[in-house]
Amino acid sequence: MKFEEGLWRLLPDVEAIYPRTITHVSTEGDALTVSGYDHEIWSRASYLHGTLITVRFTAPMPDVIRVQIKHFKGRKPRLPEFDLDYEQNNTDVEVGSDENESWLKSGGLTLRVPNEGNWHYSFYRDGALLTQSEMKALGLFQKQGHTYMRDQLSLQVGEMVYGLGERFASFVKNGQSVDIWNEDGGTMSEYAYKNVPFYLSSQGYGVLVNNPGRVSFEVASHHVSRVQFSTEGHELDYYIFGGPTMKDALDQYTALSGRPPVLPEWSYGLWLTTSFTTNYNEVDIMANIERMEASGIPISVFHFDCFWMRELAWVNFIWDERNFPDPEGMLRRIKEKGIKVCVWINPYVAEDSEMFEEGQAQGYFLQTQTGDVYQVDHWQPGMAFVDFTNPDATDWYCGKLKDLLDMGVDCFKTDFGERIPDDAVYHNGADPVRMHNYYTYLYNQAVFDLLVRERGEGEAVLFARSATAGGQQFPVHWGGDNSSTYPSMAETLRGGLSLGLSGFGYWSHDISGFNDTASPDLYKRWVAFGLLSSHSRLHGASSARMPWLFDEEAVDVLRFYNRLKQQLMPYLMETAQESQQHGWPMLRAMILEYPEDPTCRYLDTQYMLGASLLVAPIFNPQGDVTYYLPAGEWRHLLTGELATGGSWRTEHYDYFGLPLWVRTAQCPPSLANVVVPEVAL
Fold it and tell me: What range(s) does the Glycosyl hydrolase family 31 C-terminal domain occupy (predicted)?
């Protein structure tokens, strides 16, 4: 949200109040509170007709400081709030003052504020300035009849900003305006399915704006030497995670917001789907599974997309008997092959669904201001929204899913959850604007918790599209509706790298693109990228993604990389433990592993798979690739070549190769024992 026109003027129809003078600094237990007045004090008359903004600093855990800014303390809290661990007992906190300033110290992170004079506050790490809110950074604004609170944190020269969820535009966020507002927009724009109001700095710290509703970020754009964030209302709440490295900041952030859980080993294998709108029945499905087996390409999970239910009735959770007359028997036959079963669901109920009247009668759907069921004609005719703030509605919805689990289903693809109305009435009275992003948290939490209860911890897994802060606790997430082009393959990777720097440990994407149909060349290049991700799924829109539909060589390529991933499984499971223990992503931006290397700050067409394996996908039909090999000693996993890094390399590969390098200094035994698969069956 923009408020000012450069340094001197406000934008039209904007009024601003800035705290200018520190009037009071106090300590209460382990908190430091500062009051800022919007007048300069010349006499007692200066204390009349002014505005007071109060900032309370606390330290919920070592190296973390919370900043709570309020105007009008009498306002009631708005629901929902992020499900953060607010109750941590931090014994490593110190509050003090001298004649000039006051401070709050938590581990190596310190907040300092002058006791009087001009308004500002600063954050230091181990004595060095990290970032600060300077004069006129904090403000209360009136714009078009709405009130907003905003703060700005300074950036150092050369400082880069990352994260803010799964974003498909430029990997480095400097110069961008980002609204944290979930949308079903595909992967080709500034809209995103997974919006997270958390960013990481190349200086090794992170910032979470603690508001599940719309948060507007101006990253080195509206004010080019600051990150600005604003929310509607009379308060602003955020956390500084002091690092000192980006990995440390992720560790601290996910300790507060939740870490990815252990996933079953079978989830890391190859997922094959019916695809979106293709025609299929049990005969077709079993034929495809058997041909994959005969081709030496075992699959771990078979997924039924939306047409496992009859048309216009999504969701009713009833198998379409025209195509699946014996669903229990079919599921049993698939599972006898050692394959798990996933089915598509969403949180909406069409009015032609058998569930609609039941949900309406019980009050299980979101309502309009007049008490009607909130319905739209977007995805399905007369579609209603399950109200997950109602415990009875959640139990009702999950009860339908339990019937499917009892039938033999193993997991769910929790699709949708983005286009949630911002004027609906919720059972618990929640603010519908704050619920827009948070709806997906409750939706995925409900389904994941059901799987934990029914399948046990370590066996629960989703395939989810939408998310916000904390959603990393309900994995896996996939990248949404990409397209069958090389540029879309690259934007998909950018989204995954940004999501990883937002606290999400696991990630997947539709191999070869969801929309349209890839060329055989693109399919084979994307297969290499897809099988070198934490989770791997073949899925499309109007056409299926079996390899023989592209060309015979595609069968060999898919077999090769599927076997390679099986060889990498011990290493992947070790890497997954780092996600579970620290919140570090399995698929990592180069900057996360090489924070001191300035070249790695911009790299978004290559990545580290865990700490030891560098992957550079190929994004053109010529098979050429230019990538950066950081300093150190490296071994090519596929060719055995040894190289010393610290330079750019340009190479050419056929479909059975790509830059895949092991850091020899950090090579675990699980990588040392990898055997390159044979190309032939």
Answer: 583-663
Q: How many CB atoms lie within 10 A of CB 586?
A: 24
Looking at the structure, tell me whether residues 319 and 463 fall in a common domain: yes
- Residue 296 near residue 290 (C-beta atoms within 8 A): no
What tokens appear for 528 in the block? Answer: 């290499």
Write out pLDDT tens, residues 124-147: 999 999 999 999 999 999 999 999
Active site residue 351: no
Residue in 491, 473, 470 with CA at minimum distance from that of residue 185: 491
Asked whether residue 650 is domain-assigned, the answer is no
Whether residue 63 lies in the annotated active site:
no
What pLDDT does 47 receive? 85
CATH number of the domain to which 449 belongs: 3.20.20.80
Each residue's pLDDT tens digit, 590-600: 999 999 999 99
What range defines the domain where residue 66 resides? 12-74+92-151
What mean pLDDT do residues 19-29 have? 93
Could you tell me the two tokens for 164? 């803010």
Catalytic residue (choose from 481, 491, 578, 604):
481
**The tokens 């399948």 sit on which residue?**
455
Pick the catalytic residue: 38, 218, 415, 491? 415
> For position 64, which CATH number holds?
2.60.40.1760
Is 5 among the residues known to form the active site? no
Q: Which of 63, 232, 351, 418 is catalytic?
A: 418
Q: Does residue 672 sit within a domain?
A: no
**Number of folded domains that form the chain:** 2
